[in-house]
Amino acid sequence: MSLSAEKMGNLCCCVQVDQSSVAIKETFGKFEAVLDPGCHCLPWFLGSQLAGHLSLRLQQLDVRCETKTKDNVFVNVVASIQYRALADKASDAFYKLTNTRTQIQAYVFDVIRASVPKLNLDDVFEQKNEIAKAVEDELGKAMSAYGYEIVQTLIVDIEPDEHVKRAMNEINAAARLRLAANEKAEAEKILQIKRAEGEAESKYLSGLGIARQRQAIVDGLRDSVLGFSENVPGTSAKDVMDMVLVTQYFDTMKEIGAASKSSAVFIPHGPGAIRDVATQIRDGLLQASAHK
Questions:
Q1: What is each CA distance from 101 to 77, 92, 152, 232, in whole angstroms?
Q2: CB atoms within 10 A of CB 206
Q3: Tell me, what's the pLDDT at 281?
Q4: Is the dihedral of CA 165, 167, 170, 171 positive or negative?
């Protein structure tokens, strides 16, 4: 209601009380009644007057309190108090307290500074709900006598000293780096183990392939020698083997000469060299056949 409208209402002995609020009526300075929202007659010539209005809406007060934890760390605890005046105790709420917010702030300081010093810094973060419950219980008992209801109390922030926060972050970062290093080392260990297992399996299979290849060569040469000896009378197995080895020798020399990027290979060449090569290859094949 505007100031001019209020003056006009006073002249007409009528007052307006807005929704979600009440008004305090006095007669010759003494409390008489609580006026609900609406229009009321207030005959000023009979000593009636309006002492003031009281809001019944939910209000919020944020309180920042500095205190010290059990492990000697200074922290700022921010508590959010939601409260409202009770309609049935409006006279108490209007007359008993001069400054409601200051009174609530004093109780919050008292409870927080009594609770936090019993806890270490880490426990303060973990038990903030218990701290809020203690503040709410203490405020509820105290403020109900003054006509106020504490709807809810929240610990919305806990701020340690800047140096302490930096140290906590460094400790956390170091722990995470250590965990990451352990995980990386474990992963590299697994990779090396798997790589070694793969190489071992590869070498084993390669060895089996080479052994089977050599065995197939020996079996093929043996079958060729036996078949040639049977079909050509007067030839011995030694003669056939020498001829096969000489043929292989010349095929190898041809392949070496045909390769454009092959390295230089120095081998003895001549009739005597061919005989020596044939003897060495034959002895190796016969030994392989004997081990079969």
A1: 17, 15, 15, 125
A2: 10
A3: 62
A4: negative
**pLDDT number for residue 7:** 46
pLDDT band at 273, cuts 50/70/90?
A: low
Report whether 117 contacts 67 (CB < 8 A): yes
Beta strand pairing call for 14-17 and 59-68: unpaired
Q: What is the longest distance spanned by two Cα atoms in the chain?
A: 159
What phi and psi, each to the nearest 5 degrees, are found at residue 232? -115, 105
Give residue-wise pLDDT tens across range 138-189.
999 989 999 999 999 999 988 888 777 777 778 877 888 888 888 888 888 8
- List, in order, residues 6 or more apart from 158 with CB less than 8 Å away: 75, 76, 77, 78, 124, 125, 128
Least confident interval from 34-43, 107-116, 236-245, 273-282: 273-282
Q: Judge contact between 92 and 149, C-beta under 8 A.
A: no
- Of 110, 125, 107, which is closest to residue 71 (Cα–Cα)? 125
pLDDT score recorded for residue 5: 46
Number of CB atoms found within 10 A of residue 93's CB: 24
Nearest to 94 by CA among 43, 142, 33, 40: 33
Main-chain phi, psi angles of 280, to 5 degrees? -65, -45
pTM (two decimals):
0.54
Question: Are 9 and 3 a contacting pair, CB within 8 Å?
Answer: no
**Residue in this structure with the two tokens 């020498």, named with its chain if needed:** 242
Distance CA 218, CA 267 (A): 24
Nearest of 114, 113, 93, 88 to residue 103 by alpha carbon? 93
- Angstrom distance (rounded) from CA 271 to CA 275: 6
Q: Residue written as tokens 């290093």?
A: 181
Exposure of 243 by Cβ count < 10 A (0-12 exposed, 13-18 middle, 19+ buried)? middle
